[in-house]
Design a protein that fits this description.
Elements lengths: L4 H10 L3 H10 L2 H12 L7 H24 L14 H19 L6 H5 L3 H4 L11 H14 L5 H5 L2 H18 L6 H20 L5 H10 L3 H16 L5 H6 L2 H18 L2 H5 L2 H17 L5 H7 L1 H4 L4 H9 L13 H37 L3 H16 L14
Helix pairs in contact: 3-4, 3-22, 4-10, 4-13, 5-10, 5-11, 10-11, 11-12, 11-13, 12-15, 13-15, 13-22, 15-21, 15-22, 17-21, 21-22
């Protein structure tokens, strides 16, 4: 990260008292990625392997902490709210960021700072705190820092997107270089490129079919590059496996990582309980929503869902987040169609999501079993399955529960 007031603030809070530091680490996503790392690797990594793994894990954890910043830029971009005069600016900035990231990952000799320089004025107009799930918590944490730094304004901290985006690009580029010489290296790099291409596709063409949205959204999350990175570290660098090349050449790893990404995307957008519903349970839900719509003044699907949160809260842990914050969602994406017309589409897309999820689970069970047999070691298969299971548990909770989201 370039020298700036926000970098000084990060250094200060890491040395602050435990209460302040722990609140900040949760807020920026560090605690969440540490929980993921331990959940993935505990019991798989042996003895002194932890010492060799630590540096590799730290690299991806730092990168994923910066990913929270660029992820947050998409808040509010699924559909503009009335009075949102920065919608077009944020959308343009995120697309420019995606383009710069892709160019860097494809080998551009220009640094992130050079690539992002044209959009610095745009980034300086956007509040990094407001573009988060917990803006008030961010502002409260800066008060202690500001009380010790005469002459520093809150605006210097709050409007600090640009240096964080630079750090996001460079840490991602370093991540790809770490595994560049590995057999899994191409999967890591291409997975990263697909992540930013997927986000850009969602921004460019908001009116997709369900299948198109699912394909773009599955690529737009960090699952494939994250798992490919850990497989490279574990099965090539730390505990080399002679069967890994066969698993790659036969497409088993590509298939397994794609299914893991597909499931995490569905869990992220729809939620575990909705995906687990039987057809009969889904009909009960939809009949209730249709009855509510007949009695309600809600004119659109999102408005009706917000009214129904109290009654159906355990089912809507993820949909609640995306509707409240206008984030991209596989099944809630039309904020203008009359609710009577939107409900049948919502019902069909929930059913499609559940079918895709259960088919993918069956495929993943089969492919990871084959990988385990080829490698003569269950570590890689367990790693992939654990990644999905971690998010299944995470997304059972409300997003504003610290154990239900990475950065709140």
């Amino acid at each position: 990260m370039p020298d700036c007031t926000y970098r000084e603030y990060c250094s200060w809070i890491l040395d602050a008292d435990d209460s302040l530091r722990d609140r900040w680490l949760q807020l920026v996503g560090v605690n969440g990625v540490i929980r993921l790392t331990v959940g993935l690797l505990d019991g798989i990594v042996r003895g002194n392997e932890w010492g060799r793994l630590a540096g590799y894990a730290a690299s991806i954890n730092v990168q994923q902490t910066y990913e929270v910043v660029s992820d947050n830029l998409a808040i509010g971009l699924a559909h503009p709210r009335e009075g949102d005069d920065q919608f077009a600016t944020r959308r343009a900035l995120l697309r420019a960021f995606d383009g710069a990231m892709i160019e860097r990952l494809k080998g551009s000799p220009r640094s992130a700072q050079q690539l992002l320089l044209p959009v610095e004025p745009m980034a300086r107009r956007i509040s990094a705190f407001e573009q988060s799930l917990s803006p008030d918590k961010h502002r409260a944490l800066t008060d202690a820092f500001l009380s010790e730094r005469a002459g520093v304004s809150r605006e210097e901290l709050e409007y600090s997107l640009w240096p964080s985006l630079i750090a996001n690009v460079e840490t991602t580029y370093d991540l790809a270089r770490t595994t560049a010489s590995c057999r899994m290296g191409e999967m890591v790099t291409q997975g990263l490129i697909s992540r930013y291409e997927g986000v850009d596709s969602l921004l460019e063409e908001p009116r997709m079919t369900f299948s198109e949205r699912l394909r773009a959204s599955t690529g737009a999350i960090m699952v494939i590059p994250t798992l490919a990175y850990y497989v490279a570290v574990l099965a090539e660098m730390i505990r080399p496996s002679s069967g890994l090349s066969t698993a790659i050449d036969e497409g088993l790893l590509t298939s397994a990582l794609h299914d893991a990404a597909l499931q995490v995307r569905l869990l992220n957008d729809v939620g575990p309980r909705l995906l687990a519903q039987t057809d009969g349970e889904r009909r009960v839900l939809m009949d209730s929503l249709k009855s509510s719509a007949a009695r309600s003044d809600a004119r659109t699907l999102d408005a009706l869902l917000l009214e129904s949160l109290k009654e159906w809260a355990p089912l809507f842990t993820r949909i609640r987040k995306d509707v409240l914050h206008r984030e991209f969602n596989l099944c809630v994406h039309d904020y203008s169609t009359d609710v009577a017309d939107a409900l049948p589409v919502f019902e069909e897309e929930l059913a499609c999501a559940a079918r895709e999820y259960h088919r993918s689970r069956a495929r993943l069970t089969s492919s990871t079993s084959e990988i385990d047999a080829l490698l003569g070691d269950a570590a890689v298969g367990r790693l992939i399955r654990r990644f999905v299971e971690f998010h299944e548990t995470l997304y059972m909770r409300d997003y504003d529960d610290p154990l239900g989201e990475y950065a709140v």
